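Lab notes, practical 5.
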Amino acid sequence: MYNFRLATKDEEKAAWKTMGGGEWIYGAGTAADGERAYALFLGKCIALFGMPENLSEDWENMYDYFITAEDENGVVLTFNIYHGSGGPSYTEYKGDSDRFDEIFREFMALIDKTVPADYVHESVYYDIPANVKYTVKDGKAYVESKIDEDLM
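Output from the prediction step:
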């Protein structure tokens, strides 16, 4: 059993030494369903850890959280979750991968049962370019997107 919390700045700095490449949290699906899941994921992270310090309008670099998992013996492992080019992602752990897999499964179980916080966030997916607006209200996600001719 792990307790999850925001990492301290020292834990965040140390975590960079143990991180590998990124992996998507959700697989590819239909864009609308994926976007709603992405909006809910952020709402759940906000409910658990507060608004991210670095919330950005850049859809491909929207936020990140360094999360520390601590077991009953005080052993900690810090990992990174973020919204990258493929939506919500995590950074692979280059240490004890079995332990990390266990921790990440428990983390996702916590995410699954968390009621998302209400929020509204507007971003731009510059590759298309498109404006993307996430709204979470009363546990439901709404996504609005439109191609912005002015950005082309």
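Observations recorded by the TA: The chain has one domain: 3-151. The first strand starts at residue 3 and ends at 6.
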